[in-house]
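agent> fetching stored inputs for the alpha-methylisocitric acid docking request
agent> found them:
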Amino acid sequence: MGLTLAQRILKEHLVEGTEKIGDSIAIRMDHTLTQDATGTMAYLQFEAMGLDRVQTDLSVSFIDHNMLQTDFMNADDHLYLQSIAQRYGITLSKAGNGICHQVFFERFARPGKTLIGSDSHTPTAGGMGQLAIGAGGLDVAVAMAGGPFELKYPKIMGIKVTGKLTPGVSGKDVILEVLRRLDVKGGRGYILEYFGPGVSNLSVPDRATITNMGTETGATTSIFPSDEATKAYMEAMGRGDQWIEMKADSDAVYDEVLDLDLSKIEPLVARPHSPGNVSPVRELLGTRVNQVCVGSCTNSSYRDLMTVANMVKGKKVHQDVSATISPGSRTIIKEMIRTGAYSDLVEAGFRILESGCGPCIGMGLAPSSGAVSVRTFNRNFEGRSGTKDAQVYLVSPEVAAATALKGEMADPREFKGIEPVREPSRYSTDDNLFVAPLPPEEAGGVVIVRGPNIKPLPAFHPLPEKEEGEVLIKVGDNITTDHIMPAGAKILPLRSNIPKISEFVFNSVDPGFPKRAIEKGGGFIIGGENYGQGSSREHAALAPKYLGVKAVIVRSFARIHRANLVNFGILPLTFKDPADLDLIEMGDRLKLVIGDLSDLVLEVENKGLKIPLLHDLSEREIEVMKQGGTLNYTRSQLS
Ligand code: MIC
Ligand code: SF4
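agent> prediction call returned; pasting tokens
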């Protein structure tokens, strides 16, 4: 029986386990990627492992999330990251060089290789046939130290692509259609693998948009074959020699198949407040719009920005709309200057932002009260924009451009003559803001720069015999890491300061949580389905750990967050009978005898109840938990 593309790459990188769905396996990681908001922690952890140099073929550290530099804190973190990169053999992409996933795609992604990144949208590189997985910073630190990455052997959902997109419809609509069908948890446990005759009709940047936002389905990753179009794109980036063909065997068997006829897809939009809340744009026509933002790792490619520039050329953004554009990389900026498209955007009234994440993570550009903001981004969780009552809609660049001009939600198909953007045959790439790693003989002398914002990691203690405490909070389904550990301009600068950032845990849900957790001496979090969806930020585990959270007991978890809880020694547990969730309330007193972690029973002491619980920890994870987390475990392995 033949292999799918993802199965082949997994096989070639397998170091432990057998390829049986749901079983724990470990794979070797060729490349790593970090960004500043998760990177400082990842490198503090890497340092704590005591190695002299990264063990990967390639490790890149990006500064793209937190570039407001409202005080010394960000700037200090940037210097820390630069010195770490020089010290340990890592390539640095400095602030202003672009959004990690876009820049990685342009300059580094390689078909057939593996990549682990401390950002949930790492699967972007899957658009080029790389097996790219998002994870917590600690898992990335372990990979940099040469350790394998553990995951559950995934099911492969083959997405069979046929047909061709119609004018005004693009990659974003394709992934919104997939989200319409799978919603924000339908991809869990799967790799989404695209195949079929329609693949060649999708441009490479469109493929990257699709694999990028595949994250929102909860999938482990998404992947496209590497074909002639990939080759042309890599040649245009001056990397033609790195191209190889990668595709599924002709007799590959997918665990499930989803049929996707591109010709039937129409312009779509994800309504507030979930990327899975998808409807056709035509149902929202006429909705007044206050802000339009183009950019983010989902839609900031040359193709995307040129599409917008071509549509608005010679026209004016509606006077009631504030429209912004954030290019994905400096290479794109250069190309847009060369073609004159930058001037077209300026003349149409766009606000030109820096090349970085910007408004996507609430770093400025928060909408006004109750405003409608239409964005080409990948997440519209409540409050993520920085304004709690803002209504954020996620759309394609085509819909964004049409909407910016009209001042209301608009269908790009009303615009005649939207031409497909031709990729440059050779990009004039800009590598000025990369800092290359130092050779080993020079790296040893580098002094690590540590500003006052960089606080040491807290200590982790082995798992006790029993855990006791109160239910500190009870939450519902689809709680995102943005709920647990918000980002934005005020909180993001605290990412390297755990004591300080922990004051904001559950800030938008229950601002009293941190104080209560400390006063009660820690306790338990109770929740529903898909707890911890969204970002890879390990602060959503690390900060609760600092506040004394002992276990999170829910109906189900999102993959990365579950792994982060284990990494920091918080037990991720589920109800044997999901209905038992209803028996537990905030303030209940809980007791959990841990023993050897089999037959776990939760005692609700004040109600005299006994509730059976489950875990799906692998043998390695049980050992990790016992030792108080991955850092302790890795240290003991290395010594
Ligand atoms: C996000 O889009 O939520 C982020 C910010 O990129 C996160 C990483 C982080 O929180 O630093 C992600 O997607 O993993
Ligand atoms: Fe940055 Fe937004 Fe992409 Fe996250 S989703 S990496 S914040 S652009």
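agent> quick read of the result: Residues 65, 99, 119, 121, 296-297, 357, 360-361, 377-378 surround iron/sulfur cluster (ligand 2) (CB under 6 Å).
agent> awaiting further instructions
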